Each structure stands twice: as C-alpha cells, then as structure tokens.
Amino acid sequence: MSEGSSMRTRAYALLVTLGCAKNEVDTDRMRALLERAGIVEVDTVEEADVVILNTCSFLASATQEGIEVTLQLAEQAAEGVRSVPIIMCGCIPSRYGAELPSELPEVAAFVPSDEEDGIADVVAEVLSLEPLPEGEPGLTPGGISDDVLPLRTVQGASAFVKVSEGCNRFCTFCAIPYIRGRYHSRPADEIVAEVRALAEGGVREVVLVGQDTGVWGSDLAEGESLAGLLRRVAEAMRPYHGWVRVLYLQPEGMTDELVSVFRDVDEVLPYIDIPIQHCSSEVLRRMGRKGSPAELAALFDRLRAEIPGIVIRTTAMAGFPGETDEEADELVSFLEDQGVDYCSVFSYSPEEGTRAAEMDGQVPDDVKLERTQRLVDLAEQMGFAATASHVGEEADVIIDGVEEGDDGPELVGHTWFQAPDTDGAVHIAEGEAAVGDVVRCRLTDAFCYELEGTIVEDGNDGSDE
Question: Are 171 and 134 part of one and the same domain?
Fold first, then answer.
C-alpha cells in the first residue's frame, strides 16, 4: 500500500513477472489496480493469499518457462498451511486461452492481456472477497475510474512506459499480432500524464516501449507522430532534468522529423534501438520485412552523420528457414562493417501458428547453434569495445541501487549509453547517493559490459533548486 492510503487490507498477493519490459509495465499497472482495491503485495508464496503470474509467450521457450514456473508455484503453494490459488495473466492466456483450463488445473483463473485491467475483480472472485463498501476508493466493475490514473507504482530511478499495444507487421516468424492483437496507440495525453506523474515521484528516466514505437500515432488523428509525442514527453521531463529513451524502432520508422528530435531535443537520448533481424534481402523478404544491405547501411550512415555521438543497438536472428551459409556470412560481415554498439542475438524458433514454422528449409538445430554462437561472439566483441571506449569520460549516472561488491557495498547505476537492465551498468565503489540520484562520474575501467566509476561531483538530482 502507498503511504497515506486509507483503504484497509483485503488480501495479500505475490506478483511474479516473466518476459520483457512491456510485461513489467503491465504488472506494474496491475499492482496499482490491486493496491487501490486494498490488495497488498508480498514477497513470498508463504505470505500470499493469491499468486499472480504475468507470462510471456513470444517464444516456445518462454511459454515453457511460464508453465514450469506455474507448476513450481503450485508446488510451493501446496506445501503451505493454506491454499494459495494462482492467477495466470498475460501472453500465455492470450495465445492459448481455450486450451488452458484442462491443461493447467493448478491455475484458478486465466486473464488475457487485454483483460488485465479487471485483475482486482478477478482476485476478489477467486478469494470470495466481499465487495468494497459504497464510497470506498477502488475500481468500477470492469473498468478504471478517472481519478486513479496514472496507474503506476514505480519506486526506482527508471521506468518503462508503453506507448502502444499490438502490432500490424505480421512478420512471418512472430506470434505477437496473434497474442496482442492489431496495433493501437495510447493517446498522447495519457502517456504524458503518466510520464509527468512518474517524474514527480522521482523517476529520472522514462523508456518508451511498444512493439513498433516508430509508427505511434498512425492510427490516431492526422498529424500525430512519435516525433511530436517525444517533444511532449521531453517537455514533461524537462523540469526534472530527466532523460527520455526510445526502444524498438523499426528501420522504416526513422523519418527526418524523428531524426531531428534525436538530434535537437536535449532530453531525448541519442540512443537508437533498431531491430533489423537480418540484412539479406532474400531472408528479409521471407521474414515479411523490407530492406537490403545497402539500404540498412545507408540508414546507419545517415544516423551517425546527423546525430553526433549516437549509440546504436540492433537485433539479429540466426537460422531463419532457408538461410544459406552465404546469407549467414553476409549478416556477420554486415554487422562487422557497421560496428554497432550493442546487438541482441536470437536463434530462430518455429512458433506455433506462424507462417515461418510451416516453411520449407528449416535449419538443423546444430547449424542454428553454430550460427547463433558466431553472432553472439561478434556481438560481445562489439559490445565490449563500445563499453571500453567510454573509459576516461565523465558522464551523468542514474543510481539504480546498491549491490555487494568485492570490497563491500557499491552504488550501481547506468549512464545515457546504457539502457536499463540491458546494456550493463556503472559500479561506484566510493561515495554516497540515493536511488534516483544523478551523480557525475569519471569512468575509470571496463570489464565486458560493465564499467567502474568514481564520483567527481554531484550531478543534478532533479530538484528545482
């Protein structure tokens, strides 16, 4: 419960999240909804009256993880002195809803992604809670009252903010459109209100995420665009000296207007995440995507020319159906030539219900593994070098927490060229700061993706002084 809440405790819930940052946002929203209904979060099954598991189903391995975690939680719940029901939320119920009750009798209720705003009602039904007394703060059945937005409970220095849901691309390897539905943008006013509330609560970096952030606004009123949204979000963060980061920009989304925002708006970090998946024209065609080596190279060259000091992250996939040895070599050579800063690597996984899963030319697992490892080795080589290139610089570091280091407790944070929970961290052995503080550091050493730093002066903590 947040400080100052007058609502009595009705139940205790353990929240478990699997998957990506977008799922973390969904869980945080459910946390806020539960909090407003008097349902308090706890840390263990033993303390809980109910377990809420938010699942991922992007890959078959993620689905399997969700099932395994469910069974583990059920086993823990069965060992207690009282029954602890499990509610499964998110992508697995969205993808396999009709099949689940018979396959997973351990689960008391299934809540697809598009029904998560009713989580408090589901918990009340599962636990047979009495309705909230009339006039008690809480939710109207099946919806959200205006006075409880924005629904966030973030306590840390950085917060992910979803700008959209779903996807219209229908890449042949991806099940997201079938899980999350067609693309729809969140209204700008709602996003900006959430960002402003987060900043007022101490957040110093917002990370905008969606399945395809570059097309934000295309389904809204004429003239709405991600560039315009970024300007508004930057304005909301400006009084707090905050940062704005954007993830998951498809290559086609890099318009001239958007490039100018990355270049000219100080709050918007010159960090661009562009998941290319591959460079081969033929592989991209089979993926249902566009592009060629020349077009992608021209895009990267243009970004580097127009946005000084830009950091580029991308994503590459190994072993897509029909990928030849020559096409695999082409991808490695392309990434070597481009020298991107960070690269996530995936081994192709045939996902049920996708077109690629039915394609001829499925690559044998041992070949996929070898190609994946080549890409991982290259990604580490590039990432380690990009990290080490900042040694000797001074940079503002957002403090994310405290960890136990080799010589005792140390501050851990990240700087502008490190996306939170993604690109490594900055470790500070000496000095004092609170989570959410921004301190000025000299970066003194690097190891893999990690940096060491020393505080040289206080950074801007976001106060109005």
Answer: no
Q: Amino acid identity, residue 56?
A: C
Residue 462 has pLDDT above 50, yes or no: no
Residues 380 and 269 in one domain: yes
Strands 11-17 and 50-55, how do they pair? parallel
Query: What is the chain's length?
Result: 465
82: domain CATH number is 3.40.50.12160
Separation between Cα atoms, residue 334 and residue 329, nearest integer Å: 9
The span from the CA of 455 to the CA of 13, in Å, is: 40
pLDDT of residue 136: 53
pLDDT digits (tens, 9 = 90+) for 21-44: 788 888 888 988 898 888 988 988
pTM over 0.85: no
Phi-psi region of 126 (alpha: psi -120 to 50; beta: other; left: phi over 0): alpha
242 and 201: one domain? yes
Residues forming beta bridges with residue 439, ordered by sequence position: 397, 458
Q: What is the spatial distance between Cα 420 and Cα 436, in angstroms, rounded to a whole number?
A: 13
Residue 299 tokens read as 């895009």
Q: Helix, strand, coil proportions of the chain in percent (round to 5)?
A: 40, 25, 40
The residues with which 450 forms a beta bridge, in sequence order, are 447
The last residue of one of the domains, among 326, 359, 388, is 388
Q: Do 213 and 319 have their domain in common?
A: yes
Q: Is 156 exposed, middle or buried (0-12, 13-18, 19+ CB in 10 A)?
A: middle
Choice among 109-123, 277-291, 294-308 with the minimum mean pLDDT: 109-123
CA pair distance 320, 331, nearest whole angstrom: 12
Tokens 């000095």 correspond to: 431
Where helices occur in 169-309 by DSSP H, the ranges are 176-180, 188-200, 226-237, 256-264, 281-287, 293-306
Unique residue bearing structure tokens 């990370």: 207
Say how many domains are in the chain. Answer: 3
List of E strands, 95-248: 107-112, 158-162, 164-165, 184-185, 205-209, 243-246
Residues 205-225, mean pLDDT to the nearest whole number: 91
